[in-house]
Specification:
The protein is mainly alpha-helical. It contains 13 helices and five strands. It has a three-stranded parallel beta sheet. It is globular, with a radius of gyration of 22 Å. The protein starts with a strand and ends in a 6-residue tail after the last helix. The relative contact order is 0.14. It binds tryptophan. The site of tryptophan has 12 residues, from strand 1, helix 7 and strand 4. Tryptophan (TRP) binds next to strand 1, helix 7 and strand 4.
Length: about 325
């Protein structure tokens, strides 16, 4: 049986946090070790430009995200690990797909619609601050996906629509020209993988409620101490299902440890004690990786060479696919 090809991109605009780890990075790396999948992971740095015009931040984030994945055990000989901007065929394909994607389809994209809606609400021109990059974002993402004939695309809920658009665009191209593209499908983790942040809402950079993945031990402890709880005293029963501390616990603990903590909640464990145990649990899972992360961050040349090797492997696929695409649309040598 052919291997399943799993592909996902990470926009390089922030520092990875525990929510990214539990919801995306940890499951992706685990899956990449399986013999039945072929994994493609990349730094979506051209996507970063859509929402970030700060070059230093894009650069720093690319370095941090690459170091994070490597520190957490991604094996770059196993998975193809690369930077989007090192694959020139992705932007070439973006143009060809732009000429096939319906504008009306892009009009319906959530990110663009939300921007227009916000403008209308504030009485601005509907297109105020809307760039062509934001508008065409789903086409670039379609090129990322279709370039490598990926079958399964692990994404957050907010990205499902984009994967469906990639599928639409592929179908249309295959119908109009030649059967070049594999039709991709989104794979969404279950809700329990969506971690709560310090304030109990979804952990997200946009809510400013994150716990960074590789801060120092001291800062990790401090962040955990900041998680919002209620005023119940030690000895008073606490509801595990209404607690961010418990939710984080379940994301790191074995089922047995989870049942034990559930009982401790019901028996009135003190918040301070629960947080202390939570810190120890999370720290135990992350401390070796933190060391490797710090070493990698000190050795950017090594990270760069890993990415270059990954790009070479990726370009074998992208060059072959782009050749097919060009031929299909009539761009080829004349003689
Ligand atoms: N747009 C995605 C996000 O912000 C990142 C991304 C870019 C991506 N290209 C992709 C994800 C291709 C999956 C496949 O999360």
């Amino acid at each position: 049986m052919a291997k399943e090809r799993v592909l996902t991109g990470i926009t390089t605009t922030g520092t990875p946090h525990l929510g990214n780890y539990v919801g995306a990075i940890r499951p992706a790396i685990q899956a990449s070790h399986s013999d039945s999948v072929d994994s493609f992971f990349f730094l979506a740095d051209y996507h970063a430009l859509i929402k970030c015009q700060d070059p230093a931040l894009v650069r720093q984030s690319s370095k941090e995200i690459a170091a994070t994945w490597l520190a957490l055990g991604l094996d770059p000989d196993e998975a193809v690990f690369y930077r989007q901007s090192d694959i020139p065929q992705i932007t070439e394909l973006t143009w060809v797909l732009c000429c096939n994607a319906a504008k009306g389809l892009m009009n319906r994209a959530h990110a663009y619609k939300a921007a227009v809606q916000a403008n209308l609400e504030s009485g601005d021109d509907p297109d105020f601050a809307v760039t062509m990059g934001l508008f065409s974002y789903p086409v670039l993402m379609a090129a990322d996906i279709l370039m490598f004939n990926a079958n399964k695309i692990p994404v957050g809920k907010d990205q499902i629509q984009h994967v469906e658009m990639a599928r639409d665009i592929a179908q249309r191209f295959n119908h109009n020209f030649a059967d070049v593209f594999t039709l991709p499908e989104a794979v969404v983790g279950d809700d329990s993988a969506v971690l709560q942040g310090l304030d109990g809402r979804k952990m997200s950079k946009s809510y400013n409620n994150t716990i960074p993945l590789f801060d120092t031990e001291k800062k990790l402890r401090k962040s955990i101490n900041k998680i919002k709880t209620n005023l119940l005293e030690p000895g008073e029963p606490k509801d595990p299902d209404d607690s961010t501390v418990f939710q984080l616990w379940t994301a790191f603990a074995s089922p047995r440890e989870t049942e034990r903590m559930r009982a401790d909640f019901v028996n009135g464990i003190a918040w301070g004690e629960a947080k202390k145990q939570l810190f120890e649990l999370i720290n135990a899972e992350l401390s070796d990786a933190r060391l490797r992360y710090n070493q990698l961050m000190e050795d950017p040349a090594h990270i760069e060479s890993v990415l270059q090797k990954g790009a070479e492997r990726a370009r074998i696929h992208s060059a072959a696919l782009m050749k097919k695409v060009r031929e299909a649309v009539g761009i080829s040598s004349i003689g």
